[in-house]
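If your schedule permits, I should be very grateful for your opinion on a structural question. I have a record of one protein: its chain in single-letter code and its fold written as discrete structure tokens. Would you kindly read the sequence against the tokens and tell me how you understand this chain to fold? Thank you for your consideration; the sequence and its tokens are set out here.


***
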Amino acid sequence: MTTGTTERYDVLIIGSGVAGLTLALRLPPTLAVCVVAKGEVTEGASLYAQGGISAVLDATDSVDAHVADTLEAGAGLSDPAVCRFVAERAAPAIDWLLAAEVPFSREHGGNALHLHREGGHSHRRIVHAADATGRAVETTLEGAARARGNITIRAHHSAVDLVTHRRVGGEPGCHGAYLLNARSGHVHAVAARRVVLATGGASKVYLYTSNPDGATGDGIAMAWRAGCRVGNMEFNQFHPTCLFHPQAKSFLISEALRGEGAVLRLPDGERFMPRFDSRAELAPRDIVARAIDHEMKRLGLDCVYLDISHRPAEWLRAHFPTIHRRCLDFGVDLTREPIPVVPAAHYTCGGVVVDRHGRTDLPGLYAIGECSYTGLHGANRLASNSLLECLVFGISAAEDIAGAHLAEEPAPPALPPWDESRVSDSDEQVVVSHNWDELRRFMWDYVGIVRTDKRLQRAHNRWALLTAEIREYYGHFRITPDLIELRNLAMVAGLIIRSARHRSESRGLHFTRDHPRRGTDTPRPTVLVPD
């Protein structure tokens, strides 16, 4: 079903995680803002972020050290100027969250913030709220947004596509989006002077992931269809330690455990990380994930084990209450025994190409958070730089939009209604679920932690066949949230495969047996331009 009316706002924000809510709250209260969520407002990747937010807050630490650690993790592809831009704005962002009363953990018996250390960091600089930092930040920001009279929140609405000048005429630009109300089945148009993609990453393109169900690359796919460039899509971070259990869907074991002394062991108790890197368990995530993958394949293992049982039980329960409770739910007491873990797709380091204000190639369209490519992460993301990027670029984009004096611009145009006159209800919904499973499985098998030229060619062949089938299905039947996500996942999978085939070297998160060494030329990001 369709509606012919157009809702109008000054700013439309597609995505309700930390990036989107930060932007909404930092915009002037005189602007009419709409925040769109696919499901419940807080049900996104931000909610499940355990570790924390990296920021230089200790006198022994420095912005230079944070920048150096970020560049080291990025394996030569991070932009030094962007790394400094973010690191310098980290402490003010934490101050803003403190003013919003986010309940960060404090040192025992004092008021100073407790700081974790995580893999790849040379200092303790991870601000956290026990082991549920994302939940603390996300729920605090949600409450603040709901209290703002200028912010409208639309839950259970899926963005179908952006509306650009190609539909409404005029100068190049983005004028709004079509939204599907998942509960009513209606598609309606929402016009806005500025549109912001804050839709998160695309880790659901893989069979095993630490992310919630919504990480389907929607913003990346919509921006690509609208004519925006994407960058570094071959760099997909696999978190080394997700709980291995048949019923433990998407539960991540925070890197902070390794920062506090947890070690990785084989079933016979042997500690193996020192064989792979001098930093052992505190090496960057790509190194740890590949080491685990190597040992599992070498020995035919289902999992390896993360052991922190040597630390005092009360201390563990106090510092990692969420992980402790969740492991107990599956019969594992981390105070007494090691935790079975496996790597899983965790973070999309590439995305829509943007500048320091989150502006894309298309006037009026911004992208912030995990769906964007800012130059911060390079070939691998440093732990706890993700929520930091959401905050810094959410604030920066808000400042840019606020400075544009939107009230002086013409009202956004009425948008053409969504046309469903030539489609019908599908009687074969099973096609969507089958295609979804096939896509995620061949991406895991052929475009995962370790790649080869032959695997990438196989992935491309299967992707081409699957994409043709999805395109035909999309053109004939009424859209559903599942079909929207499948269409977007397939598009993003193609961008990942294409980018991976373009990079004939191993660097950071992209490791290929056919080109196991880094290239000798000056490293460059992989930037794809729509045809």
